[in-house]
Amino acid sequence: MKHADLIRQLTLEEKCGLLSGRDVWTTRPVPRLEVPSAFLSDGPTGLRKQMGEGDHLGLNASEPATCWPTAAAVANSWDPALGEAVGAALGEEALAQKVNMVLGPGLNIKRSPLCGRNFEYFSEDPYLAGKMAAGYIRGIQSKGVSACPKHFAANSQELRRMANDSVVDERTLREIYLTNFEIAVREGRPGAIMSSYNQINEVYTNEDPHLLRDILRDEWGFDGVVVTDWGGSNDHVEGVRAGSTLEMPGTAGDSDRQLAAAVRAGVIDEALVDERVDEILEFALRTDAARKAAGEVKLDVEAHHALSGKAAEQSAVLLKNDGNLLPLAAGARVAVIGDFADTPRYQGAGSSNVNPTKLESARQVLNQFPLEVVGYAAGFERADKPNEELLRAAVELAKKADVVLLYLGLPEISESEGVDRTHMRIPANQVRVLEEVAAVNPRVAVLLAGGSAVEAPWLIHCQALLYGGLGGQAGASALLRIVTGQAEPSGRLSETWPLALEDNPSAAYWPSPCRTSEYREGLYVGYRYYETVEKPVRFVFGYGLSYTEFAYSDLKVSAGAVTFTLTNTGKRRGAEVAQLYVGLPGSQAGRPVRELKGFAKVWLEPGESKTVTIPLDDKAFRYFDTTAGGWRVESGEYRLEIGANCHDIRLAGTLAVEGSGTPAIPPEPYRTGRVAQVSDADFTALLGRELPPARWDESAPLQMNDAIGQMYYAKSALARFAWRVLTKKKQKSEESGVPDLNIQFIYNMPFRGIGKMMNGMVTMEMAEGILVMVNGHFCKGVGQVWRGWRNAAKAAKAEKKAAQG
Ligand code: BGC
Q1: How many domains does the chain have?
Q2: pLDDT, tens digit, 9 for 90 and up, residues 547-582
């Protein structure tokens, strides 16, 4: 242990106090031993340091900070070095605002295009997500601040997010939902990691020794702080035992007392508490020293705004460009249409929400570009309501221009923490404007804002489509640089855009409204599925156009790397993202036809060639052998492909690889990829155990881990009435177009959350009393709540007395 001396001097109460927060954002100090308090702050889209009332949903104000393009956008750059640059700037802002830990990046796998937090995550592919996350982590930590990748792990839906059990087979877990974290941890070496709200295979991630100890600490060598997601601690004692360090937010001593009592009762060994205390001390002392060494850091607003714009520029994806409509020639007469040109969508809602230092809109910055703007028309209302007047004005304006720049996007309601999307469409009123405008002026370039894939049956109506994601505070000028040819489009999609939602492999299983969420599609997530079963999609994974062309030649395959030549055959500078895919035809273990195992973003001048080498690392051939409980390589003739995306393979070679052992043969859907409708029998066989009950038992009393949204079958009439009121409010806010995050949160929160989320105002004993009331025993419950309150008051008084010596 690094801080054994210090730990010897701490009382048991002080040790336990260090393992849960002081309040919503800070850890406890121990002034007599000069142990400082540390400040934790969201998040990867920019800092959200709250000085006033703290909340974990982005509701109350925070200090101004640079708003970066969200992770989903930056992933489209396929450039971990760019992620590192953004991370370093974020780390600098953390120093300036005296923050010790940045709660990000978020790198969960986009299992479905509908997850409400997809805009905060990098990709459907673990390799790309891991590499991007490692870049951010290296950047943040280069300033001495700790990063905190999240949410570990298999947390891919918002519905019932705190009370959901991800039922997933070990191989899929390892290859898809943990490989991203493995890369982030091994290559980024984060000082912290955030456990997720959900369970995996019936165990809360925060108290899962297999996940936190065997895999994270022992296998990957992580030696930092495991932080619970806010309110995600189910049983603090079990968390500490399993390897979780810090419970957040604080519970005003309730959890500390439980932990100290468990040590005294011999339920948990004090040596385990010491291990965790060592981790938190190391974090607080190290980051505090870095902050002091850095002195007063002043935020360079302009430089960071410019970097945010650079990131947006390198992340934008040109998805269509018929007849080379873009780039526009200098002096082109443009009509600017679409409400998003005036009120940009540049970030998502929830805990990642940033109070930006500045904010560009396209309308404001257009005059900095060599375009002749013939006018602006909003075209549509943000809420999906028809407005003939706005539509007509847009059509009239379109007639006057050479080209229409049409700003469309997903409205705010679509992308928020705590709420999943229900469909993949952009609002019908926006599509109508596109159709009508294109009818009078077909030279339409759509500039699309949004943090996740959309269905695009409307694509035929535009000549060009430039996708900017949620591009941060400087995204507007970034897109216009591409439109005018001052910058080159170089982004590639980090997720597939299916033709329709139903095509997604998880469509039949996601989101689960039940207690369990069954990952029946197994390994076949995103392009792994579409490519294997040859299902056509709108835009494939890795897709994106340039203003120039590239040629691939001279593939050489060796045991350690693939090498080839990339040439810019066009007339403009540009970047290609060359992607390495690996497959094993006839694999006995069953695997997707191709999987991403490496990539390189290469900038080339016109006519220039470069030799590109992509190493074959330890992930290139491995699969997780569930029977052996470890990584193995299957012997065979592997196919190594270099593609401009996952479908457009430009070069292919083979490599004979000598593996070990013979893999077990999985059930049929997992060999062919036909996973859209997996039977109970096949999924049970894959899991290797009986399926846990998907539904809760409505005849049984509600439990601490049942969600408040389940109160419709509570025994207490009062609780059922409360449920009706809550449900009405929830429906009303959903209909209004602006989801009420608080209500969504409460609805999906389990009863234990009442004890974990109210800063100690309600202790766990009191929360249990409330549940007794909900279950129809009003007087007994009131008694328990009262006893809980009295016990907490007594304990607080005793602690105060002890502190006064
Ligand atoms: C989110 C985390 C976030 C935390 C603190 C939680 O609700 O899931 O991503 O870091 O709040 O705001």
Answers
A1: 4
A2: 999 999 999 999 999 999 999 999 999 999 999 999
